[in-house]
Design goal:
With 167 residues, the chain is of the alpha+beta class. The protein has one domain: Lambda Exonuclease, Chain A. The protein contains 6 helices and 6 strands, in the order αααββββαββαα. The radius of gyration is 16 Å and the shape is globular. Bound molecules: iron/sulfur cluster (SF4).
Length: 167
């Protein structure tokens, strides 16, 4: 029996999966990282500051930092306090773009993630959307496993809120 409902997959979960599969599994089971972790507290503070700038969409509870039209297509912008894993940030934003595109039946949507001076552009072309759909299916299959993969030290452990839990 499936223990994880695929409709519960979020952009954050996609980011975690691309960063560390163990982290994604723990998060999916609501085993939350240390709430006093500096990175998490900083993220919460930033989220509160940005709250007024966020736009709500009537079709869902999705929220983005900024969405606008640029030369005939939609452009979603997301600001991050840090970007230790640009690939994770890219896939997270692509997930949001995919949700917007399919929900609103948009023709073209692109995105960018901004962290300090760093900017990562995300193209919403067909190949990327297909890759995202395959990733979502892969994450769903992965999250059906009854236990997380074992701890394996990696370059993201140092800044991870689960580091005390894992070691
Ligand atoms: S501490 Fe390391 S192994 Fe554990 S969840 Fe975080 S990144 Fe993954």
């Amino acid at each position: 029996m499936t223990e994880f409902d695929p409709s519960l997959i979020t952009g954050t979960l996609i980011h975690y999966y691309v960063t560390c599969k163990r982290e994604a599994w723990l998060y999916s089971r609501k085993i939350h990282a240390d709430q006093w972790d500096e990175n998490i507290l900083m993220g919460k503070a930033l989220a509160e500051i940005k709250e007024e700038q966020l736009q709500d969409f009537p079709f869902s509870n999705l929220k983005f930092d900024k969405i606008g039209k640029q030369r005939g297509h939609y452009l979603v912008t997301e600001y991050k306090k840090s970007m230790s894993n640009p690939e994770g940030a890219r896939m997270q934003l692509l997930f949001y773009m995919w949700q917007l595109k399919t929900s609103l039946k948009l023709k073209q949507i692109n995105g960018k993630v901004i962290s300090g001076r760093r900017v990562v552009f995300v193209e919403g072309n067909e190949a990327n959307m297909k890759m995202l759909e395959e990733l979502v299916a892969e994450v769903s299959r992965f999250l059906e496993r009854p236990a997380p993969p074992p701890f394996a030290l990696n370059k993201f452990c140092k800044g991870c809120g689960y580091r005390d839990y894992c070691r």
